[in-house]
Specification:
Largest sheet: 9 strands, mixed
Helix content: 25-40%
Structural class: alpha/beta
Number of domains: 2
């Protein structure tokens, strides 16, 4: 059985990954054997006497893998670290998979068969590390047909991975790639209009429905937050609605995902003050990329979950009609907001989307946004800041998913005292709460526009990296897609 991990739209990699399920690996194939340094016996049948002696010596050294070139095929033995922490073990395996991508490139291996001799590990996590570690965004290179880090084909024994597991793995890897592609696209290509078109194409490809509202339709709804942020833009906003509703959906009421879609954020009149920060602001739609990726994964894997995703999309620029500090705007739900900082724009467009979600009477709403620098300063790039009103069971399930996929969550409080910082002298609310606990006051602002179980995820830290972190690529990481997919498939 062969499943093709293919690329759609403007692919960043000019090749595909064939993940092939076989009855058992053939000794005539190029073999990649996973082993531990203290348990080499399962590897010995594949080696001659001299190779066994060399492997035993190598196992006592601080090396990660050994390569044995052969006349008809080659053999890699990869030493896998183990841990008593089950979640950390999964991450060690993903990181190991990422390491081996360089070996594929170095030794020009195009097809490999996996042999797993380590009982404590799952082959899916290893393949996940290989494929995510092999991601490259090459669309804008004049010659994009150079070497890539991944083999054309990975053969896996059916006893190590079922067809259903492989389908889910393929779905989440494709979706994470697509999320990364979207974040890495420059705003010169990915305008709000183009983002809507990309979503429509993805809906047609994967089978979820899409409706994209244009500016007159947004004006008819009086979405004051989205329209205010868009006032300085040269292009119109979009409000994108996606729906996946299989006949066998488990949930009577939908789960709604909301993603911040600021395709470029200058900060508006409150121009970004942090040095070099403007160079990365194409990533301010990473929340949108997360929920789009989640829709791709859910529909491709045919998850029995009724799912809706909402993406308000615009850029935030300085223009002739740009909104200004001191302006008072009327939101979609009628709330008046005093704007004190035009760089606190994400919460304005999210608030309109959160109010829009009320019409679905949702079972649960999850929003994702690169919302605050405060979240980055608090947790750095290794965790997601989250908060909200959903019950303890949902939070526990999400935190468990976060540990499993190593997109870990740290909950922050939404105490009413933080809401006092949002009181305005001239309007119902102001859009910033002051210099302290900015990630929490942003969450309190969003909470005002909800009346359902809801959680807010501030992904500003891990969404965009200045350097690769193992299989998390430099620039867009696609964070949140794997988290949401794992949560949904176990919901």
């Amino acid at each position: 059985m062969t499943l093709l991990l293919c690329r759609y739209l403007n692919s960043s990699v000019a090749m595909s990954f064939n993940i092939n399920l076989v009855d058992r690996p053939n000794k005539k194939d190029n073999l990649l054997i996973l082993a531990t340094t203290n348990h080499l016996n399962p590897v010995f049948p594949y080696l001659n006497e001299n190779e066994r002696a060399y492997l035993e010596q190598a196992a006592t050294s601080d090396i990660q893998y050994v390569f044995f070139p052969k006349k008809t095929n080659s053999l890699l033995v990869h030493f896998i670290d183990t841990s008593d922490d089950a979640h950390y073990q999964k991450e060690l395996v993903r990181v190991a998979g990422n390491v081996i991508t360089n070996a594929f490139t170095h030794y020009k291996i195009q097809e490999i068969s996996l042999v797993n001799t380590v009982k404590k590990i799952e082959i899916a996590e290893y393949v996940e590390g290989i494929v995510l570690g092999g991601y490259q965004f090459t669309k804008y290179f004049s010659d994009s047909n150079g070497n890539h880090k991944v083999p054309h084909q990975i053969n896996i024994a059916a006893q190590d991975l079922s067809a259903k597991e492989l389908n889910g793995l393929q779905a989440v890897l494709e979706a994470t790639y697509k999320a990364r592609d979207l974040v890495n696209e420059p705003q010169s290509y990915l305008t709000a209009t183009k983002l809507g078109e990309e979503i429509e194409t993805l809906g047609n490809t994967y089978g979820f429905s899409v409706k994209v509202l244009d500016k007159p339709q947004i004006e008819a709804l009086n979405m004051g937050g989205l329209l205010a942020v868009n006032r300085g833009s040269f292009g119109p906003p979009r409000f994108c609605i996606m729906e996946w509703k299989p006949e066998n959906a488990k949930n009577e009421k939908p789960i709604v995902l909301v993603g911040k879609g600021v395709v470029f954020d200058t900060g508006g009149v409150n121009l970004k003050p942090t040095p070099n920060s403007l160079a990365t602001m194409k990533c301010d739609m990473a929340g949108a990329a997360t929920v789009i990726g989640a829709m791709v994964a859910a529909s491709k894997a045919n998850l029995p979950i009724h799912l809706i995703a909402l993406v308000p999309a615009t850029d935030n620029r300085i223009g002739n009609d740009a909104y200004l500090p001191g302006d008072v705007i009327t939101m979609y739900d009628g709330t008046t907001v005093e704007v004190l900082n035009t760089d606190a724009e994400g919460r304005l467009i999210l608030a309109d989307a959160l109010h829009y979600a009320k019409q679905y009477q949702p079972e649960l709403v999850l929003d994702f946004a690169t919302l605050t620098g405060a979240a980055v300063r608090s947790l750095g790039q290794h965790a997601i800041c989250y908060m909200g009103t959903a019950g303890a069971t949902v939070k526990e399930q999400l935190e468990e998913s976060g540990q499993k996929v190593f997109e870990r969550l740290v909950e922050f409080p939404l105490w009413r005292e933080y809401g006092k910082q949002l009181k305005s002298n001239i309007a119902d609310l102001k859009n910033v709460g002051g210099p302290m606990a900015g990630m929490i006051t942003a969450g309190k602002f969003l909470e005002h526009f909800t009346n359902y179980p809801w959680l807010h995820f501030d992904i500003a830290g891990p969404a965009y990296l200045q350097a690769p972190d193992a299989y998390r690529s430099k620039s867009g990481t696609g964070v949140g897609v794997r988290l949401v997919f794992d949560f949904l498939k176990n919901y």
